Structure formats: C-alpha cells, structure tokens
Amino acid sequence: MNSMEKVRIARQLDKAPLVLKNARIVNVFTGLVETGDIAIGEDRILGIGDYAGLEEVDLSGKYVCPGFIDGHVHIESSMLTPPEFSRIIVPKGTTAIVADPHEIANVKGLEGIRFLMSSAHTTPLDVFMMIPSCVPATEFETSGARITPADVRKMRDVKNVIGLGEVMNYPGVLEGDPALHEKIAIMIDRRVDGHAPGLSGPDLNAYAATGIKTDHECTTKEELEERIARGMYVLLREGSHTQNVRELIRGVTEMNHRRCVFCTDDKHPEDILKEGHINHNVNLAIEAGLSPILAIRMATMNAAECYGLRGYGSIAPGYFADLLVFSDLNHIDPERVYKKGVLVAENGKALFEAVPYVNGFVTETVRIKQKKIRLDLSLSQPRVRVIDLIPNNATTGHGLASVKIENGKYVNDPKSDILKLAVVERHKHTGNVGLGLVRGYGLQGGAVAMTIAHDSHNLIVIGDNDEDMRLAIAEIVRINGGIVIVKDHRVADFLPLEVGGIMTVAKAETVMEKLNAMDAIARSMGVKPIHEDPFLSLAFLSLPVIPALKLTDRGLFDVAKFAFVSIEAPEEGQ
Known about the structure:
Blueprint: H1 3-10, E1 16-27, E2 32-41, E3 44-49, E4 53-58, E5 63-66, E6 68-73, H2 82-89, E7 94-99, H3 102-120, E8 126-131, H4 149-155, E9 161-167, H5 170-175, H6 178-186, E10 191-194, H7 201-209, E11 214-215, H8 221-229, E12 233-237, H9 245-248, E13 260-263, H10 269-275, H11 278-287, H12 292-299, H13 301-306, E14 323-326, E15 336-339, E16 342-346, E17 349-350, E18 383-389, E19 396-402, E20 404-406, E21 409-411, E22 418-424, E23 433-439, E24 446-450, E25 459-463, H14 466-479, E26 482-487, E27 490-496, H15 508-524, H16 536-539, E28 549-552, E29 555-558, E30 563-564
C-alpha cells in the first residue's frame, strides 16, 4: 500500500482493508473516550471517525485502547524463551516490551543477547533491547561473560537496540568508574536506564546528571516524587517477587503522571497466567484510585515517549495498529488483541504458535568441578553475620546471631532457623565457593539448588546438611542447569532449564505445573509461607547491588560498604 492509497482511505474515498466499527476509543492525547470507527491499512491506523472497510468488525461499543508496553523486563526471569513468553503476555494485552537481557548476557555475553534477539523475531511481540551496562553487575563476583564499552558500541546501531540497560553499579557511577561512564557516553543520545535503590539528595543529582533517566527501584512515594522532580521517569514495578505499584501509586497525580511508566521486571509464568501482565499493573492502579485514563496512558503513551518508540502507544493516524478490545474500563481484561492490524489473541488465547528456537551457543553452560567444592564452614567463634530474609523483597537484612560450632565447623541447629548458603561458580571451572548463613527461610531435611542466581547466575544452594546440598549440586550438573529440590537424601523433583541454565523451551503451563509441584514440596519441608515464591527468594541472595548483605562466589558482601566482610562478627561492644 503506497502513501496515496493510504491518503484516499483516510479521506474516506476508498474502503480500508479493516475497520473496527462502533468502538469507544481511549484517546491518550486528550484523556477522553470518543465513539467512532478505526480504519486500519496494513500495520497502521489510517483514520478515526466514520469508515467503511473491506472487512468490518462490529465492536458494539466495546472499549479500545493502545497496546500496553512493558518498560523494563527480563524475559529470562520468566524461565521461558521469547516465543513462549510472547504466547502468554500478548493475550494479556502487552504488545511491546523493553527488554534488558543482562541475565543471559551474564552467562553468554553477546552470544546470549543475539540468541534472545533472534528468538524474539519469531513472535508478533515487539522486543526492543537495552544493551546491559553491568555485566558482571560488580567486580565482586564471577560471571560467564563481560560486556565491554566496545561491545556496547558494536551493538549500538543494531536494529531494535534502543539504549543502555539498567546501571546497577551506582557506586561506580558516583565514584567515576571509567568503563561505566564510557558505556553511558556511547548511549547518551538514547535512553539510559537506572537502578538506584535508596539514592537521594546530591547523590541522586549526580546519578541523573550523567544522563541516566529512569529508575524502577523506587519503593516509597517519597522516592518516586524526588526522582520525578529531578527529571527522571519512574517505572512502577509489579513482578512476582518485588511489588511496588500499590505503594507508589499514592504518589502519582494528574500533575506528575506523565513521568510514570509501568514495568514487571521479573515475573513468573504462573503469575502472568493468573494475574495478567502490564494489564495487572494498570488494574492495581485503578483499584487504588487512579483514573483509568491516566493508568492506560502510563502503560502506553508514557512508555513509548520514555523510550523513543515512534509510532507506538497511541490510537491516531500513522500509529501502529496495536490495539486492545475490552468491556470494562475499570478492569482491563483484553478480549481481543490486534498487533499491527492482525488479530493475534482472543479471549485470553494466543492465535499464533510459539515456535521454539535455540542454538548450541546457549546450552551446556554448567561447568563445575564437583571435587573442588568445599562446603565446610570453619568458624573460630559462634557470633556471626547472617543474611536476614525480608518477605517478598530483593533486599535483605544484615543480622547477627550465635551459632553452634563443633570441631571448628558450623553445625546446623534446627531450632535457630539458620541455614547454610553456598554460591558455586559454574562458568569457568574456578572452584570458587562462597559460604554464608541465612535466617528466615525455614527449610528442614534437605536442600534447594538453582542456576538462577542474579545476576551472574552461578549455582546457589541452601540446605540444613552438606550431604543433601552436594546431592542437589550433582543433580544440577546432570540436568545442565535448573532448579532442584533434595528431601531426605534423595532428589525429590527438578525443573531443567537447559538454555543458559535460566530458561527452557518448554510450555509455560508445563513450567507452571512443575513449579507448583516443587513449591508444595518446599512447603512440606518447612519453607515459610511469608515467601510467596521460595525460589525467587533465593535467586536474589547473590545480587551484590541490592542491600544489605549478599553472597557471591567470592564471599559475603556488605552492599552498604561495597566490600566483602567476614562471616564472623565482632563481639558486642567491639
């Protein structure tokens, strides 16, 4: 279709290929709902008004709004590859995402990013990529790869690459890390994503002054307001583990909402299938009292403008025909989803196949010399530092405790609710094993091991005895990555994640069923109900950029000091 054919259709001189008739159209420019038809030609909207079409669909007064955009998501955290991820989020109304592939990049570098991009091309979902800024997240852990300034420059002009991924190493920004500042400079005319939990005052000013313009780590109304006041966009996150929309929406007003966007960050398949995706964020905001029009604007036009996505986020001539059809403005449950003018989902079901895509670069990524693994924790005194779990949060506490010692070694005491945690390097055969202690998980009579361990994705294992921890590690090696539960000295269940040790080409429903079964086993072993997801609760314990105390393959890490600390704590008064 040439430009004059489009002009003739828009002027009502010719029929449009497709017309959605009798729609109540959410106009994110005016904030009003207007009644009319939507004329579509090829992948674009050609007109709003009274139109005739070669194909006409009578919507009988149903609402239509632009397709939703997820402003920040790690596809890998769903444990699905892009085709299957697309199959479950598009029916929920998400038609475009801004993906940060730093999970697979930490395992396989540029090869991993290219795999994710190639895989995404097989789906109708638009996947825009941010090149990861912090691979590894810090220099205090061992990742499978590094992303250098030269790599960022190499990927800068690749199709669908739109910016630099979340700058998690905010101490590096403030202290002038040369490589990090070079990466920011390379992408300065694009969008540079932030990650600055707790940053405020002059430090926040300095962070924003480098060109970083978003943050999805706000947890309070005050943080949201300060970032907006400093010219940043705030991404209101609602994932499986970290859920901030209800709190942050208190700070969103008619005056400042244009600097607000929705994101999921990390969300498991079960939660997507049960709750929804970005439509869940929108519905939570509406339930909390935000105007439906403002909530829709945040999920569409705001996201498109934030990330420079031309042609996305609005219903108007010349924009892509990414459209949701639904009945209730106060609770958006898409009945039809159009992607670039094609009906791709109806009544919650995708109308396209998820074609599995994988290559040899991203499989067989677990490389561990099991004979080198040492799990003995030597202590000269009983007073120790412990990682205190905070329910459903990536942050942890920095606790103190007295533990049992026999023959100079830590011994588990079931009454103390303290468990041994190990992070085993799994990329380069180094033999590195970091050891720590965790309080508040509740597991008894076994171990849980995973190769999902943000962000370097080494092997993380927790347990109340070394025998079961070793058995869990051995099973992880056998299945080439995934999640394993050992109970009473036998493997109780496992989920293979054969792609990078963090994803699978299996169906979302299969992953959901397996995780539910494993969750039930974990609960039967005493894992506390305060942890909505017993596996995500572990996955963030190795991330040394989120306070307060974390464990990497190199040791126990104090995020506030940005330095390693001993497990043994000073005696009181010292």
